[in-house]
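Hi D.,

Good news: the full-assembly prediction came through. Inputs first.
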Amino acid sequence: MTLDDISITLVYSAMAVYAIAFIAYAIDLARRSAAATAAADAAAAVPATVGASAVPVAASTRGASASTTSAGVMPPVAAFARGNDGAAVAYGRSPSLRVGVAMTVIAWALHLAADITRGLAAGRVPWANMYEFALTGTLVITTVYLLVLVVSKHDLRFLGTFITGLVLVLLGIATVNFYVSVVPLPPALQSAWLIIHVFVATSATGFLALGFALSVVQLMQARRESMVASAKAVKRSFLATLPDSATLENLAYRVIIIGFILWTFTLMAGAIWAEAAWGRYWGWDTKEVWTFIIWVVYAGYIHARATRGWRGSRSAWLAIIGFSTVLFNFTVVNLFFKGLHAYSGL
Amino acid sequence: MSPRSDPGALSRPDDHIDSPQPSGDASVTQPRLGFVGWIRFAWRQLTSMRTALLLLLLLAIAAVPGSLVPQRSSDPNGVTQYFSDNPDLAPVLDGFQMFDVYTSAWFSAVYLLLFVSLIGCIIPRTKHHFDALRARPPRTPVRLARLGGYTERPLAEGETADAAIERAAADLKRAGYRVERYELRGEPSVSAERGYLRETGNLVFHTALLGVLVTVGIGGGFGFAGQRVVVEGQSFVNTLAAYDSFNPGRFFNDANLDPYKLTLTDLDAVYETENQEALGQPVDFTAEVDIKGRDGEEVVDGQVKVNHPLRVHGTDVYLLGNGYAPTITVRDAEGEVVFTDAIPFLPQDANLTSIGVVKVPDGMPEQLGMIGFLYPTQTTLDSGAYASTYPDLVYPVLTLNVYSGDLGIDGGTPTSVYTLDPSTMEQLTGGKTGVDSIELMPGETQDLPNGLGTVTFEDVTPDGQPDAAAGDYSQSVDRFASFDIHRDPSQGWVLVFAILILAGLLVSLFIPRRRMWVKAARRPDGAVVLEYAGLARGEDPGLDDAVASFADRHGGPAPTDAPETAADPAKPTT
Ligand code: HEM
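Then the structure:
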């Protein structure tokens, strides 16, 4: 068995474990819905007297206006146990959530091992063709997710369904459609910038992916909140156990600005590399065009956050469009657009 | 807090999230009639956050078509191809400048408007920021309890209110705050502000964006880019006439070309030989060159590789391509040499099947033209056609189809050295002529048809090396390098501005700008408590923590904290 075969075996093992993690997270989401329903039933039984004490201290700095919650319909226990995430229903960590996280860690370790063995097999950094970009990129997405779990004051484990799902799909596509065996680097890729530029781009993708996930949940949460505010009948969904939309928005913003700075660096490092490899630092090559578009869209997102009337759902949409352009750049532009960046290896 | 009463306030567009809500001031919403009023109204609109945002989004959208349709600047052949593939659509698209998106009127309009908006935005802010830098932190608000992270601590025993505030001021100063003592109704307080660098970073960022645009727009005009093919052993002198193609910038003066001489001594191409999955993939291209300055300067050795341009005499030399340049000699019926030269053949595929054209204008009864195919490692496909299976010279074969007639080079119209127009010529070999194409290996000679003479594929292996006669072809054909030679005086400046952009961004996104107040407040019962509070100026997720940790350091742990910390009075206070 060659190192590359070992790497592939590890990738498949990681995918299997990711799949288990995904199922565990999904079960957890289902239980959240159940918990939300139970909380509502309990509230219906107990007269709603806890109103004032239950108003959440929204962790948002300014946009707290969106932190409308169904405060009145909460049982006292829930109000007591709740952190400052502004979640309407306290939930804690179910066993399935714990399993999900544990499995994610195991899958991550296998994934890391797969990536390292691929690098060893190739005798260079494992991100020089599309299969390797995908392998390393998904590894970074999981790493960022796990890192944020450790660092963040907020419990973001609920994003596991999205993260493991995304990683699973991308890894699946990569192994089935993009796999190429180890081949030497073409002269244009023999550069220290391969290590820096591509790795930073990949890391940026990890943060932007997380920002995307948070923005999607933010939009769902905002929709739920406006229904609660207008006293419409609200389906008891898992959303009730998640932070309020303003908190989600702040979290999304924080990971996205990290991604944005990494992307800015990617763009500049790319220009420096292009100067050495192709004789000009900027030539509106298709990949350059899309890198620029992504950068401008996220600059728009940051502006939107600072523009009256654009904070909230509108800026969340920009984060979603931004990540769509990232995915587009990685897939469609790599595979179907003509240009100098023909390094997919396919 | 209206901006006028607060010297530390940020001057930002009216619709910035931190600006006070519009007060219904007529000048903002309804322009007064009259020219000046309209101009002011238009200017406000242009420099608003909303306009900046919309222009940014418009810029992103406007950039898209350039990736869908080939661009003249980056892919001129693609444009030609597009025109022949879509003869009806292409002229329409061309009318919209779709093949020159990034220099088109509409794309330029978007980014120029954006930058006008940017200038309109940063000038007042820069002025305001300078004022704010010199202003005192604002008066302590009367009621701190409404502000961010509000917390209280008892006054330490034996310390006066004034001493506690003095100590707070010193601590805050040490923590990088600008501080100012105030006293209102006998309550001493300190007002502190930090993070001016955040606004500085933001202004540096936006100004540097402008810097990039200006240097690219103006500085780029002083440079040039030229291409030149050089065969091993040959030289090129950096003068206008020596370039195969040359694109000067708008302000470029060709008197500025430094006529140094570049000689290609060797082009070394290495291909993969071990890895079965990648046989023949290029592993390395290195052009060894000699550079000789204008008058008697020392000759210096240099190397040009992909990713490693050679920077000499103010120009950057890039290796952008390479291939084979077989040396072909033509003799007339008497055996006199009428033509001999190394002809660059253009590679057609990864195994370097290459096409070249030989033109013999003089010395023959009629002008001769030949279209040649070079197969570095020749093989015969099942169909009988030839192909190359490996890019290096293992079994090189050259085939030539000969034409005689008018080469069309005497009329004065420039023709490419890489193409032959056979329409005015008679084909003598290959195709439907029934005469076999000429087929040569290095060192071989064959007769031309009709007794015209002979043609030789020279073996250029250096003396003393195993040559074709010994069955080793590895050095039998010269290679050529195609160099791009540039000069771009703006490049360094763009880099400087790029670094400023990144630095400004880091500073403006991660340095929190905040105010903090400590007040010794007197309660109605006469007791004095220390009040702490903060105010975020822009995105500042850490505000509450910062206030709490300052209060802990200055006034001791909060009494209502977890019992174990409260029970530990010996805990250091700094
Ligand atoms: C050339 C196009 C522009 C780009 C690429 C751009 C990009 C950015 C970026 C990346 C940020 C966040 C980093 C920072 O705060 O320094 C930002 C912030 C900001 N920009 Fe721009 N900008 C542009 C034009 C403008 C214009 C025309 C205005 C004025 C109308 C403006 C006003 C602002 C303001 C006020 C902020 C601070 C936002 C906040 O408070 O968080 N920008 N811009």
